[in-house]
Amino acid sequence: MPWAAVIGSPIDHSLSPVLHRAAWDSLGLGDDWVYQRIDVRSEDAADFVWGIDSQCRGLSVTMPCKQVLLGAMDAVDPLAQAVGALNTVIPSAGILTGFNTDVHGIVRALEQARSSRGLTSTEVAVILGGRATASSALAALGTLGFRHVIVVARRFSGSGSVLGASMRLGIPVEQIMWADRERVLTALSQADILVSTVPRGVADDLAADLKVRVDQTLLDVVYSPRNTALRSAYERAGACVAEGTEMLLQQAMLQVRLMTGQDPDAGPMRLALARELDNRGETS
Q1: Among 238, 241, 209, CA closest to 222
Q2: Which residue, 32, 85, 146, 207, could crosslink 66 as a Cys pair with Cβ 3.0–4.6 Å?
Q3: Class of 103-242 per CATH?
Q4: What is the reported pLDDT for 223?
Q5: Model confidence over 152-172: pLDDT tens digits?
Q6: Per-residue confidence at 147, pLDDT binned at 50, 70, 90?
């Protein structure tokens, strides 16, 4: 039986099965395909993907395996290579190819939110965080036309740093250390778009002192609970808020296309996601 899975560790709370099963049902594949969660640690990731059988149609990849699996692929899509992280593995004729659909998800979430408000400025963007998701955000902002991107992080060194992605993508970044609060707040006040890739609670202290304009846009990748301190600050100012759940949905839609060769219907996926978050009590 054809199957796919999301791999990473921990994996119990992944929403990928909810999205992919809804997509497969909409495509008439739900009775014939199986999608599961498999806990795979980073040190075991390469052996796992090398051992998948011929019935596997694809793998969704989450932390901590997004970067380590790049070296285990037979081929890597140029975007994933430039970003320095993959989130999708597609096996075909014995060849494993790595893709990054997170960039697509970020682009679509921002495009949809900003177009609904008629926002078009691409002068300054700020990213909070400096690791894998920040690298995907940098690629997405480059796609949207931003060339002045400021990255705020606690450190910029080490493997998987956004600085490596910056060089590979050809998008220079201005670096600001998280502790330099005055510079950080000044950058945030100038930003047309803020993409926060940091865990829940990390940016709460910044949110308290933000001066948000109505023409600014926030994408906080934390989607459960959705009412983060950053989001509340932007909503109080009447600013534009792109949904983290929309990023999740859009990247999953591209994964489904890569795995099945068909375009899924967003409606059933969006409904299934909302219901699951509601069941978990994670919508507020």
Answers
A1: 241
A2: 85
A3: alpha beta
A4: 79
A5: 999 887 767 899 999 999 999
A6: confident
Question: Are the C-beta atoms of 103 and 78 separated by less than 8 Å?
Answer: no
191, 250, 187: which is closest to 217 by C-alpha? 191
Quote the radius of gyration of the chain (alpha carbons, Å): 19
Question: Is 211 a residue of the active site?
Answer: no
- Residue found by looking up tokens 């679509």 in the block: 108
89 near 69, Cβ under 8 Å? yes
Say if residue 283's pLDDT is above 70: no
Give the mean pLDDT of 258-279. 95
* pTM of the shown model: 0.95
Beta bridge partners of 218: 194, 241
| Model pLDDT for residues 62-74, shown as the tens digit of each residue | 999 999 999 999 9
CA 154/CA 68 separation, integer angstroms = 22
Amino acid identity of residue 30, one-letter, is: G
Catalytic residue among 66, 108, 114, 231: 66
- pLDDT of the residue at 284: 46
> Which CATH number is correct for 3-100+246-280, 3.40.50.10770, 3.40.630.30, 3.40.50.10860, 3.40.50.300?
3.40.50.10860
Amino acid (one-letter) located at 6: V
Q: Which strands sit side by side in the sheet containing 56-61, from one edge to the other?
A: 34-39, 3-8, 56-61, 88-92, 95-99, 75-76
Apex 49 CA angle, 48 and 52, nearest 5: 90
Where in the chain are the domains? Answer: 3-100+246-280, 103-242
